[in-house]
Amino acid sequence: MLKTRILTAALILPLFLAALFYLPAILWGALLLVLTVIGAQEWCKLAKFSVKNTTLYLILTTLLGGELLFLLSEAVVVDPYSTSLITVYALSLIFWLFGAPLLLRTGYPLKNPLILMLVGWFVLVPTCLALYQLREISPFILLGLMATIWISDTAAYFAGRSFGKHKLAITISPGKTWEGVIGALIAVLIYALVWNYLTEEKFLTVFLVPLLLVLVVLGVIGDLFESLVKRHAGVKDSGNLLPGHGGILDRIDALTSTLPVAMLAFLVFYSN
User: Per residue in 42-56, pLDDT tens?
Assistant: First the structure.
């Protein structure tokens, strides 16, 4: 399993970096839309939608995501910090600050198809838009924000294995510990300080460190939320698209709760 994970990562990472830095904006947007629809298809399985509801949801997700991406692409040509879709990012923040923690606290399984559809859009659509707009601001900033989550996950894993004694959410994800979260915060703090020191974009220095620490906490919430959904669905992974890693949702769980909030922070502090 470990060899499979490493091999898959070794193949996917160069392709992702090539797309991030070299794809034209229209193709980057098309790629994001395809990944969003794949994520929506995995969400349909987790939500146990009927064939009819799955078909409807995938069509609506394609139309919704495509239309919003089109509007965003038009806006960022004029100003990468366009606030035209700031409401979408704000709704994402509200969901991850209040909706997801409430569901995690109660453990209540969602069953209503309409609510499940809305939740799926809260998870997927703002992430897609944030990936597009952050790249327009700077692919290096987007990569740096994504690296925050990768460093957080890695540090939490090793800190949890080495020092973990106090379970974070034993009924949802037994492997996660408070020691792992502390390890993640320390690792990201060091990373943020180094990034802050090295960056030539001095406008980042005002809020980079606190932002990245907030993203660690939000990343944990996103990770736990997907674990809860998978537990209710009775599955280990959201899909099998990526050998050794599961599905798209398994790989972007923490990104869904962090990138839209990071994008919102950039718009609040640095838009014209």
Answer: 999 999 999 999 999
